[in-house]
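On clarity, I found the account of how folds are encoded harder to follow than it need be. Since the whole study asks how a given chain folds, the encoding of that fold should be made plain. For the editor and my fellow referees, an illustration may be useful. An entry of this sort, consisting of the sequence and the corresponding backbone structure tokens, reads as follows:

:::
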Amino acid sequence: MPSLWVDADACPRAARDILIRAAERTRTSAWFVANHQVPLPPSRWVKPLAVASGFDAADNEIVRRIERGDLLITADLPLALEAIDKGAEVMTNRGEALTPDNIRARVQMRDFMETLRASGEHTGGPSGYGDVERREFANALDRWLARNRG
């Protein structure tokens, strides 16, 4: 069975709770990678991986360890691109699939928005994480787990 990898530095608590329950229910290894200790329950399936602090330390560790067929949960588009290039699947914590067909355009848009922000333009941020986002994520994760049962 493929593993779940979570970019835990920016993962909302509600998404983390969904991932923990799903990993336990399906007996799927779920690695929560962050540059700090992430509060997790003791579990055979849910595993914290704290890395040294530093720019992209958690991202680099994920890329080093992730394998073809694993699922990465992240909103970090450059990290998503690297994982996709290694053959992993990627989903945001809102249940949106990042794929070879859409990731490069998403990275280009991110870079464009970053340029606008650097020039002083206010571009806003993502909307809040509520019931709809939790439900979409849980449903997308369940579909992935059902497709990838060993």
